[in-house]
Design brief:
Blueprint: H1 20-28, H2 40-52, E1 57-60, E2 68-73, E3 78-86, E4 105-107, E5 110-112, H3 120-135, E6 142-149, H4 160-166, E7 176-178, E8 186-188, E9 191-193, E10 196-200, E11 202-211, E12 215-216, H5 225-238, H6 247-259, H7 262-271, H8 277-283, H9 288-295, E13 298-306, E14 312-313, E15 316-325, H10 331-342, E16 347-353, E17 379-382
Parallel strand pairs: 3-6, 3-7, 10-17
Antiparallel strand pairs: 1-2, 2-6, 4-5, 8-9, 11-15, 11-16, 12-14, 13-15
Helix pairs in contact: 1-3, 6-7, 7-8, 8-9
Length: 383
């Protein structure tokens, strides 16, 4: 059993499995903003909970300040189930909050704080379920594993990426897992639907570097790197990249067209015609952002770097782009789309590309989609 020092004021008891909301509040109070993460105190506290319930666990760390925790409750001969989630969160700098993002205030039936959705609420549910199993005498049908990781928001190099590369034995017998909420109910045109995630878009981080005329800022200058970058960003911010229709998206929209009223059915069918897709998305009233992301590569400028003095026009400016690629697409594809869209030729550098699996094989095409009382189960992939 791993050792864990007390690093948080949250009490450790053997009845917390009945209080997932309080587990969530305790988790939120750990300021695990990534970067830098510093998830160790939170992981250690989870270890203390497992200790209190008499459950053994192990920690694995590439960086000692960013450990990952793995624990197992033994079950019967049934297939094992993995419950996994991350405890790091994105930053809060420069944001206006109704309540302190790390106080976990409860108001109007909601818990307020950074990580309530992504994904400390999920970790709280998994942890409550896991501890409940430990507290009960009845053995689960199969082994149940709990995995709590660091560094999801930074790409997973210290988290799941590290575990998959260095400790693949942890996952050797696991065919079933519940992670970051791949499915949820969704009401569309009065019809309750239940999408099933079959793939994910691929993370592709790019740097686009622009070069131009430079000099003293007291004189007028044309063709500057800053101007080129600004024009590029404005276009990327306001225009879509080309349409890509995967087999999963095609089946999803066909299934929805079969289930919704005729007017909305025509919209979903038209989404599958690339010449109409964008116009239909502009006209739709619900779920447009999700559908938009399913049908396009996306590129969002997130960081700009350039210039080092107030009165000097910089020769070079770089913008960071968080791109998410449709399954089957490569970095070269989105770079070509960005050049075509903007009419510019920046120097692109691939900072990170997490190549995903190819588009899911969903044959036979229509038999795979199931219905129950106008509740289609349709494939989708996560954005």
């Amino acid at each position: 059993m791993a050792d864990a020092e007390t690093t948080h004021d949250a009490p450790v008891s053997t009845d917390v499995h009945d209080a997932p909301v309080e587990l969530l509040r305790d988790l939120i109070r750990f300021e695990t903003v990534n970067p830098p993460g510093d998830e160790k105190a939170c992981i250690d506290w989870i270890g203390e909970l497992l200790d209190a319930y008499g459950v053994e666990y192990d920690t694995y760390a590439k960086d000692p300040s960013r450990p990952n925790l793995f624990s197992t409750i033994s079950g019967g001969d049934g297939p094992p189930l993995l419950l996994y989630g991350h405890v790091d969160v994105v930053p809060v700098t420069g944001q206006e909050w109704t309540h302190d993002p790390f106080e976990a205030v409860v108001e109007d039936g909601h818990v307020w704080g950074r990580g309530t959705l992504d994904m400390k609420s999920g970790v709280a549910m998994f942890l409550a379920t896991f501890l409940r199993l430990a507290a009960e005498d009845e053995q689960p049908p199969g082994d149940v594993h709990l995995l709590v990781v660091s560094d999801e928001e930074g790409g997973g190099d210290d988290g799941l990426g590290y575990l998959v590369d260095e400790h693949p034995e942890l996952f050797a017998d696991i065919d079933h897992a519940i992670g970051e909420f791949g499915g949820y109910d969704m009401e569309i045109a009065g019809v309750e639907t239940y999408p099933i995630q079959v793939n994910e878009k691929q993370v592709c981080w790019l740097e686009a570097t622009f070069r131009g005329n430079s000099g003293h800022a007291s004189f007028p200058h044309e063709g500057t790197a800053m101007g080129k970058m600004a024009s590029f960003v404005e276009t990327v911010d306001s225009e879509r990249l080309p349409v890509h229709i995967t087999p999963a998206a095609e089946q999803m929209f066909e299934a929805l067209a079969d289930a919704v009223p005729p007017e909305q059915a025509e919209q979903f069918e038209a989404l599958l015609d690339p010449e109409q897709t964008d116009d239909v998305l502009d006209a739709m009233e619900t779920e447009t952002k999700m559908f938009d992301a399913l049908l396009h590569n996306t590129a969002n400028p997130t960081i700009v770097d350039g210039g080092d003095k107030e009165n000097v026009v910089p020769e070079e400016v770089t913008v960071f782009l968080d791109c998410r690629l449709v399954p089957g697409q490569e970095p070269e594809d989105v770079m070509a789309e960005l050049r075509e869209l903007t009419g510019q030729e920046p120097e692109f550098e691939v900072v990170r590309f997490d190549s995903g699996p190819p588009s899911a094989d969903l044959t036979p095409s229509r038999n795979w989609v199931r219905f129950s009382k106008q509740r289609p189960v349709a494939p989708r992939f996560r954005c």
